[in-house]
Write the structure tokens for this entry.
Amino acid sequence: MLYFAYGSNMDWKQMKDRCPSAKFVCVAKLKNYKLAFTRECKKGYGVSDIIRANRSHVWGVVYQIGEDDLGCLDHLEGYQPQRLENAYQRMEIMVFFKEGDTEKPLTVSAYEVVNDNKTGKNLKTSKDYKNKIIRGARFWKLPPNYMKKLKGIKVK
């Protein structure tokens, strides 16, 4: 499965610990969405989500995930197929990556928060969670203007 990571799973060490089969595919951009923190985790801080927002975009990393690791990733993201109440839902989306001077589409899976606080109001996240996002973004060399945006994420 091709998986688009936009939050803490951009952190390569975390991703390899969670999904040993993960292989980097590319850096990609999700158009008409923005990064938000709409779900409060059990530890009391906001965790990342993607919400629709015209003329906005979210940068992230596309990984190839083996079938053996898919169940583990689903579990860690609070998703179980056919369960009535999930924290996140796995959905198919189209992201874009650069190949030379050309932008190319790629269909991938991503996780989106189910229901919680979809007003767009951001919850504050933890310093550690924010640092994982930034560490991943730096490692994969996301654009400088996006890095600046990530550094502005509010923490508790």
In short: The beta strands are 2-5, 23-40, 46-64, 88-99, 102-113. DSSP finds four helices and five strands in the chain. The longest strand covers residues 46-64. The mean pLDDT is 92.
